[in-house]
Amino acid sequence: MAWGAGPVAADGPGAEGPGAGQPVRLAQAAPSADAQISRTPEGGGTMRGPVTNLPLPRYVSLKGGEGNARRGPSLSHRIDWVFRHAGMPLRVVAEFGHWRRVEDKDGAGGWIHYALLSGVRTALVVEDMAELRARPNMEADVVARAEAGAIVRLGECNPDWCRISGGGERGWVPKSAIWGVDPGEVRD
After folding, report:
1. How many Å apart are CA 142 and CA 174, to the nearest integer?
2. Distance, C-alpha 47 to centroid of its chain
3. Digit-coded pLDDT (tens) for 150-161
4. Average pLDDT, the chain
């Protein structure tokens, strides 16, 4: 990602020791001990955050132009990543107080203060020159194309397609062309 959509390794104060300033790939976060399972009347289970009672995992976006991802849920923890693109989609996998454990499409991330996150849904285009179509159908007219790495606003989704918008254009793309929505997720 030469254009810099991804996180950058933190260096500077608090980045001491072997490998300081080098990218750190964080392990996939397991559900925290604080996570709870809410049961539906039918007996199914959905993991819910202990702070917000919202589903885990879930998608959010970076509110401002920069967000520090820390090793742990406090300002005293080392910064491992700095996300530098407003609107970047992130996946919340854990909660602790005012902190949310997030990861990007590559699984990199850390703990970010909730004030730096937005509930506005965005997506990252992962397919180069993804074709935006007039309708959610491969036979529909192509109305625009999006480069890989573009951050777009996420709209309506059916089981296989999502409507996205960005740069004054909008259209439907297969879910496989974007990151920031789950495979079976439906949005109105």
Report:
1. 13
2. 18
3. 999 999 999 999
4. 83
Asked if 56 contacts 95 with a C-beta cutoff of 8 angstroms, the reply is: yes
Distance CA 159, CA 8 (A): 33
Q: State the total domains in the chain.
A: 2
pTM above threshold 0.70? yes
Residue 104: which CATH number? Answer: 2.30.30.40
Is there a single domain that holds both residue 59 and residue 111? Answer: yes
Say whether both 159 and 92 belong to one domain: no
Cβ atoms within 10 Å, residue 139:
6
Checking if the pLDDT of 58 tops 60, the result is yes
Give the domain extent around 163.
Answer: 123-179
